[in-house]
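Readers outside the structure-tokenisation community will struggle with the description of the input data as it stands. I therefore recommend that a typical entry be quoted early in the introduction. An entry of this sort, consisting of the sequence and the corresponding backbone structure tokens, reads as follows:
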Amino acid sequence: PSRSPYCRSNNSSSSCDGLGVSSDVLREFLESHPGVASMTTEQACRQFVLPATQELQCAYIELVKQKGKDGKGAAVARATVFVSHAWKYNLGDVFATLLRFAEKQGKPVYFWFDLFCNNQHKAISYPFEWWCTTFRSQIESIGQVLLVMSPWNDPIPLTRAWCLWEIYCSLSSSSVTLSIGLPPNQQQAYLEGVSENMHAITEALVRIDAERSEAFKPQDRDNIHRAVQESGPGFLGLNMQIKNHLREWYLNTAVELAGSKDVLKGISNPGILLYNLGTAMRNLGDLQHALQTFESCLEVFRAEHGEYHRTTAAAYCSFATTYYSLGNYAKSLEFNEKALHVQIKALGEQHVDVGITLNNIGNCLSSMDQNEQAVVQFERALQIKLATVGEMDQETGNTCMDLGSTYVLLLNYPKAVELFERARKIYEATLGKQHPTTSMAYN
């Protein structure tokens, strides 16, 4: 389990008074306890915190208070950040995340960190109801929660019931700010994940399901789940809240990374990273930042491969798709024509990429009510796709659908039906009868 039985116990003189520890306390703990950085929080609790506090049977923060000043400021003060994390995390990664967060704040930060602020000797002496009210009041009193998120694409805290409760308390209070911190190793994993898969962020959001969360005590899990269902938004609503919050975080992180020259210098394929980040921004609805990122992507591809290369054409196509999403069909047409020019020079006219771009040009023209010209481009696209990928390919089906839709606008219904029927057969063969795209052909 990610939370030991120790992690949720305290006494009224430590956790309830809302005190937190400074960044220097975290550093001192790492320096004075050899090997602790590579331990999990639970291991550090058993090996260092419990023995150190055994005599006084107190929370570790009480020992810190007895030492007084740390030489650089108060070691203990009113907590300003409540830390939500999983006990199976590497403690060095957690502390690195907290220290980086503190450095960015420009003012002293005091962390309510359960390993230190809870009395770990009285693990099971308090009932579930006590914990629920304690954590909610503690979070609301502090006003800011820092969620340590790892791994970036399937965070452990979202699978732990007590972490879920902390997140729920944060999102359900208008007075609480929920921030997200990514451990250093996960920042690199984020970059690599997005570089390898442009849909990685969307897939990460799809995986979120608060109802799968577990707890060290099954009874705690059941009670938390019941509380979410009965007094909260239910799991459907909570999942939506978490996804919306993470979506914004993923977007902000993508924008930050895309604009960092230092980050891009350490990436083997910066153009691909920028392309995928821009695609992720577009898929998540941040179209203006997507355009800015595609501009950087185009510069990199041009510098690496020159103007007449498939990747340069892909960047132009990304501009075209984004402008189309913005409803700027003329601008989308302009970039599609640039992409087409590059593709024909780099790949030759008989290439599936050329067929796809001609199809996109047809859609632009149709959206601009130039349906006769659109039909010409769709017909060109269809012939190229037939010659390159054949009849029974989804790309061919797509052009049949678009061409059929244009014939509807031209009131040529027999021709439209013929093309829709052709698309249906292709989709059934390539995607199956139950696929949503297939159902569009039926409609």
